[in-house]
Write a structure and sequence with these properties.
heterodimer; A: 399 residues; alpha+beta; Rossmann fold; OB fold (Dihydrolipoamide Acetyltransferase, E2P); 2 domains; six-stranded mixed β-sheet; 20 strands; elongated; B: 293 residues; mainly alpha; MetI-like fold; 82% helix; transport (chain A)
């Protein structure tokens, strides 16, 4: 299946989920994938989960709720200690929970031990069994299930082919690179046809190039197999690139769960807005629907705060730079502090010149980050130069 | 300045060569001194076994007596020695089995579930090192007396319980090294998530990765049991060392020859352990050298 076909199938699955199946032209393939995952009963529902580690006063999971549709890939994203790995381990049964209910495919698995949940997990640390070859590792789960040698060897080789490692089948873990080991771990997890595939930061230990390559492979395999997947990571880029939906976690619960684009463009909380991507915190006046930022009306996202002294959370690409020096009621004068060329775009850090903003910012100069395409950068842009920062009418959150 | 610059690069090379040569000489001297220190008593023992101390006559009768099992020509009763050797070998086997059964699952579970408990086990396991064997016997004596009368017999094989305690510090250390060399938690969690029950995790995943340290713990335990005298003697049981001591009363040459053999056997065990460990290390290094990309 080509990349375009895979993307089409993934989009069609989303449409099937949303009940818009008739509008898609690739629904047959998508329906087959989805039906297969539904047959395996891969939908997840975690309700009101509480988890406290012994000796800790705070809850690692605090009224945690998560719904994952069959065949969907949900990424749990958050900083260290937010509870994302705990949520995954609770789902897998490797951690006991103090309260709540976990359902998989409509079946309550809360008190089912980890080895009987029919889930498979890929860990951050290399978890291949060192005394076994790659193919023996992949066969392990099948051997546990009592499959004959011939049958399990056939399946194991199939899965190794899926991850592109048939030629490494007889190698031991010490003879493989980190990326190869994680691929084998993925094949091993998929070999048992799990109801749910759990990925606990599987790419964190790999170098940047391999990480990008492997995350694309994970997504491809997930779409091909239609396995319901929960992926935990702290890497935003990783989350944004592979997820059907991303759940941003904070203090043991999900702050917002949405499609990557929605999450980026319409964050529902300040934490989500500041955690995903770069955000400018600009003083504004809001009536709940619109905010006045630097003299321009900016539409507001639902749930925004209202008042004369609110903070508008505005993305760098939702600001423009004017270097013409014209005086206008819209925009705010600023001085360029630094310019970073980042290939496809340029990031400009500037400080607002008017003392009003400095006083409003508690005596510290108010910094603004603007992003523009490297081909569309304004003429005369230079470090130390005076510019005007103008907001674009892109929906923002006011807090 | 130019002259100095010309000379400087050569000086460190010469100095390094001199330093290396000096280090080699010091190493050789130290190793030689240690070898002489260790070999002298062994050589003296060997000479003692082949030269009659009173008459000064050279002969290999004591060795013949050991290998033929007939020491009547030298006035020695070899049956007690064979019995003692049999008891010690049986004790070694039983002690190793008991030690592994007791220590391996306990240490694995403590390692996975409770690190604090692991530290407590370490502390308890090292206690026999700090308590002299003679003090241990004071505590063990009444227990063995009671056990001999009420539960078991006076068969020396029951010394295995005391010996498990004696080998704990050495066995614990060997097993702890093995446990720390693998990621026990991740391996067991991976196996559990793939559907393995705890016994399967233990036997199919952990034991195959711990066998080297289990072998090491076993060899050390065998060496300790074969050399144990105090506990057996004070509890009135006959093992190899007690039998050797008794034989020494009638024929010191045979006793010494047998001691030398036991020592050689223990050395062979330790060397075998070292060779196996080295072999494993090389195999692993070879594997790592073959790493792709």
């Amino acid at each position: 299946m080509s990349l375009a076909e895979r993307k089409a199938v993934a989009a069609a699955i989303d449409e099937l989920h949303d009940g818009k199946a008739e509008q898609s032209s690739v629904t047959d393939a998508a329906r087959a994938v989805l039906e297969d995952s539904q047959e395996r009963g891969g939908g997840i529902c975690m309700q009101h989960i509480d988890k406290i580690y012994p000796g800790n006063a705070t809850k690692a999971l605090d009224d945690f709720n998560l719904d994952v549709k069959p065949g969907e890939m949900v990424v749990l994203l958050g900083g260290s200690g937010c509870g994302k790995s705990t949520a995954l381990r609770s789902l897998s049964g490797l951690e006991d929970i103090q309260a709540g209910r976990i359902m998989v495919g409509g079946q309550d698995v809360t008190s089912v031990p980890a080895n009987k949940r029919n889930m498979a997990m890929v860990f951050q640390a290399y978890s291949l069994f060192p005394h076994m070859t790659a193919v023996q590792n992949v066969e392990f789960g099948l051997e546990i299930r009592g499959l004959s040698f011939k049958e399990r060897h056939r399946i194991a080789m199939e899965k190794l082919e899926l991850v592109g490692l048939v030629d490494q089948a007889t190698k031991f873990t010490q003879q493989m690179s980190g990326g190869q080991q994680q691929r084998v771990a993925l094949a091993r997890a998929l070999a048992i046809s799990p109801r749910v595939l759990l990925l606990d930061e599987p790419l964190s230990a790999l170098d940047a190039k391999v990480r990008v390559q492997l995350r694309e492979e994970i997504r491809r395999i997930q779409v091909e197999t239609g396995t319901t997947t929960v992926f935990v990571t702290h890497d935003q880029e990783e989350a944004l690139s592979v997820a059907d939906r991303i759940g941003v976690m904070n203090h043991g619960r999900i702050e917002q769960i949405d499609a990557p684009q929605t999450l980026y463009q319409r964050p529902s909380t300040e934490y989500v807005a500041t955690f995903i991507g770069v955000t400018n915190r600009l003083p504004a006046a809001s009536n709940g629907d619109e905010a006045l930022v630097f003299g321009r009306c900016v539409p507001l996202i639902e749930g925004s705060a209202r008042g004369d002294e609110v903070t508008a959370l505005i993305r760098p690409e939702a600001l423009t730079i004017d270097t013409s020096g014209r005086t206008s009621a819209i925009g705010e004068k600023a001085q360029v502090q630094s310019i970073h060329f980042l290939g496809s775009h340029i990031r400009v850090d500037a400080v607002l010149k008017d003392e009003v903003w400095t006083r409003a910012n508690g005596g510290k100069p108010l910094e603004v980050t603007v992003q523009c395409s490297s081909t569309g950068a304004p003429d005369g842009l230079a470090v130390g130069g005076d510019v005007t920062i103008v907001p674009l009418p892109v929906p923002a959150l006011a807090v | 300045m130019a002259v100095m610059q010309d000379v400087k690069p050569e000086q460190p090379v010469q100095l390094r060569a001199i330093r290396i040569r000096r280090q080699r000489i010091v190493k050789t001297l130290v190793l030689g001194a240690v070898a002489i220190f260790l070999a002298t008593p062994l050589l003296a023992m060997l000479l003692f076994t082949v030269r009659q101390p009173l008459s000064g006559v050279w002969g290999i009768e004591p060795w013949k007596a050991i290998f033929t099992g007939d020491g009547s020509s030298l006035g020695a009763d070899m049956s007690a020695l064979w019995k003692g050797l049999g008891v010690s070998l049986a004790l070694s086997a039983v002690t190793v089995v008991l030690m592994l059964l007791l220590l391996v699952p306990t240490m694995v579970m403590a390692h996975i579930r409770n690190k604090r408990l692991e530290r407590a086990i370490e502390w308890v396991s090292t206690l026999p090192l700090t308590i002299p064997a003679i003090v241990l016997v004071v505590g063990l004596g009444p227990m063995y007396r009671w056990m001999s009368i009420n539960l078991l017999s006076t068969n020396p094989i029951w010394l295995c319980f005391a010996y498990v305690i004696l080998v704990l510090p050495f066995a614990f250390r060997a097993l702890a090294v093995g446990l720390r060399s693998i990621d026990v938690n991740t391996l067991s969690e991976a196996a559990r998530s793939l559907g393995a029950s705890w016994p399967k995790v233990f036997f199919k995943v952990l034991i195959p990765n711990l066998w080297q340290s289990m072998l090491s713990a076993s060899f050390i335990s065998v060496a300790v049991v074969l050399g144990e005298y105090t506990v057996a003697s004070l509890l009135g049981r006959t093992n190899l060392q007690v039998a050797l001591f008794q034989l020494g009363q009638s024929n010191a040459q045979i006793s010494t020859a047998m001691s030398l053999l036991a020592l050689v056997f223990a050395t062979v065990l330790v060397v075998a352990l070292d060779v196996i460990a080295e072999h494993m290390r090389r195999r692993q290094e070879k594997g790592q050298n073959d790493v792709i990309g």
